[in-house]
Specification:
The chain is built from 18 helices and 23 strands. The protein is α/β, with parallel strands linked by helices.
């Protein structure tokens, strides 16, 4: 959603402390998280609630019978072939060993077999969010208050909420908030508004785009921002009003760091471990059994994340950014290419390399072939076409598939040119992805199918910004084809749905509902009714298709024999509720590898 999906500020080493293994550790360990120092997370999570389950590889096989049998409800395998529903599913050693009628599976019931009675509920493959910045979601949720549109839909609600937060905090403590959406919550915040909340307490509000913020006058004093401040290294700068005075707005990482280094507590291994532990619990409560973090996992974090995901969590898949690609060589023995690199005794995996080729349509930095409404701005790609081809060719040479962030159709043109030049059609290295693909044209979808490239749509764009796209950015005709899932179905082009959290709300059922209804929550309008899809197609986009896009189609995404028992139990059947009620369905249980992690 924002220029680089999410900002990289939370990877800045100045925000971390106490990451040394011991007092004699090198200074670089103490400066911030490194591969070796991140291993201290293993100690930090010891004894935490919810992390006492054995890893997938450590579970004992039960000879001759099933560990558990799920029955007594609606069971939807969502497999490409076979029955649309079955009566029972049997699990042994964390994997599905049978799916069929109760009579067929009765022979697998042994003395130790646990019967899980669904009690009329619906069992599906676990949800997979194929583009979500899980580590950042965890840290933001742990350290900042969420003041986004979902919590405070009007400006009056927002200011009242900030005042309520102010009243609860001890004197002198920073009020730190995130997720503010200037497009939906009444325009930019100002220093004067935030001074109205408090003239004594420093306040910093981070925008949902992760690159901008706003602060009050006490915060500017503590950050020591002079009235005549100019451009900072790295493009950081500050907003000014018509009178030329600072107006409270803060732009880009180098400017935000002036505040964040004072406002945030230092991120220790214990804080990070708690944030990730809480994140996995929350994610499981939404039915997620796997998430994919595209590009924002740092190479130095990998070994620590393998420890964190060894027990009792959902699966965490990741791709590295192009600039960090060489760091993946340390794990080359785990494989690369069409199948994900699976880390032993862990639920962590690597798949693909990420490039960000344009910005955000909301900030008019998505690269288009036709100008945005009201002017001649088209945005521009982050790389010249020749440079992008060189980068993609290097990824292909290293044996990885590529994931290219493209919101605008001009960026998609360049990405497809680069992919075709390097990979040709349907390469053996796995699925190449176009991330977001928000303004993909019909001819580009045809070309994707020919090349074996797949898009992943941020369907919350339609839910939250459909009206703004129509009225402020692109006009009705272009907006009607945004996130064109319906056209993909007609072309038989596989696609997925994702949240890009924290840049939009978590929850796969919201994505499914929006893909089915195409309803914008802001004004209740329908955005491109021709692009609405069936419930089954939408569910596949967050299960089997998503598993394929993270290199794990052979083990996740459907309820079939041989697949991991990653399951979600819903209180209602999404095929039987009203389409506008899908996102309200309650998640009862979430299972990963045959282990219940929620419910």
């Amino acid at each position: 959603m924002c220029r680089f999906c999410v900002g990289t500020l939370f990877t800045n080493k100045s925000l971390f402390s106490d990451w040394s293994i011991g007092s004699t550790g090198p200074a670089s360990w103490r400066a911030g998280p490194s591969r070796r120092s991140f291993m201290t997370l293993a100690g930090a999570v010891t004894g935490m609630a919810g992390l006492a389950l054995p890893s997938d590889g450590a579970r004992a096989q039960v000879a001759g019978g099933a560990d558990m049998i799920f029955q007594g409800g609606t069971i939807l395998p969502l497999a490409a072939a076979g029955p649309k529903s079955v009566e029972a599913v049997a699990v042994r050693g964390g994997a599905i060993i049978a799916a069929g009628s109760v009579a067929d599976i009765a022979g697998l019931k042994g003395a130790a077999t646990k019967i899980v009675d669904l009690d009329g509920r619906t069992l599906l493959p676990g949800f997979i969010d194929p583009h979500q910045h899980s580590c950042f979601v965890a840290l933001f949720s742990e350290l900042l208050a969420d003041v986004g549109y979902s919590n405070y839909p009007t400006r009056a609600d927002l200011i009242a909420g900030l005042k309520a937060l102010d009243a609860k905090l001890p004197a002198g403590q920073w009020l730190l908030a995130y997720n503010f959406d200037n497009l939906l919550q009444g325009g930019d915040l100002s220093m004067a508004e935030l001074d109205g909340v408090s003239k004594d307490r420093p306040i910093l509000v981070w925008y949902i785009n992760m690159h901008d913020g706003a602060a009050n006058s006490p915060a500017f004093r503590i950050a020591d921002i002079p009235a005549d401040v100019g451009m900072l290294p790295g493009g950081g700068h500050f907003g000014r009003g018509a009178d030329g005075k600072l107006n409270g707005l803060i732009y880009e990482e180098s400017a935000l760091l002036k505040f964040v280094t004072h406002a945030l507590p230092k991120i220790t291994p214990a804080i990070f471990a708690k944030a990730m532990t809480d994140f996995f619990k929350m994610s499981a409560s939404l039915g997620n059994t796997a998430t994919h973090e595209p590009g924002t996992v740092q190479p130095d974090w990998i070994e620590g994340l393998t420890k964190l995901t060894a027990t009792g969590t959902g699966r965490l898949s990741a791709s590295l950014m192009y600039d960090n690609m060489a760091a993946a060589d340390a794990y080359k023995a785990l494989g690369r290419g069409a199948k994900a690199a699976l880390f032993p005794e862990s639920r962590f995996s690597l798949y693909g390399i990420k490039i960000v080729d344009d910005g955000s349509n909301q900030t008019k930095t998505g690269a288009q072939t036709i100008p945005y409404l009201g002017g001649d701005e088209k945005g521009q790609p982050n790389y010249a076409p020749a440079e992008l081809k060189t980068m993609v060719a290097a990824i292909k040479a290293a044996g990885w598939p590529v994931q290219i962030h493209c919101n605008g159709d001009a960026a998609i043109d360049n990405a497809l040119d680069a992919i075709e030049a390097a990979y040709g059609a349907n390469p053996s290295t796995g699925i190449n992805r176009i991330e977001h693909a928000t303004l993909a044209r019909p001819d580009q979808l045809v070309r994707m199918k020919k090349l074996g490239v797949q898009p992943s749509f941020l369907m919350n764009h339609v839910y939250l910004y459909g009206a703004a796209y129509r009225d402020q950015l692109f006009g009705p005709q272009r907006t009607a084809f945004m996130d064109p899932a319906g056209a993909c179905v007609k072309e038989s082009l596989p696609f997925t749905l994702h949240t890009d959290a924290p840049c939009s709300p978590l929850g796969s059922l919201r994505l499914v509902q929006t893909a089915v209804t195409r309803r914008c929550a802001i004004d209740n309008s329908i955005i491109g009714p021709d692009q609405a899809i069936a419930v089954e197609d939408a569910l596949r986009a967050v299960t089997s298709a998503a598993a394929a896009q993270i290199g794990q189609a052979d083990r996740l995404g459907t309820l079939e024999v041989g697949k991991q028992a990653d399951l979600v139990v819903l209180e209602q059947d999404p095929f039987k509720v009203a389409p506008d009620a899908i996102m309200k369905i309650k998640v009862s249980q979430t299972w990963v590898g045959g282990e219940k992690i929620f419910g």
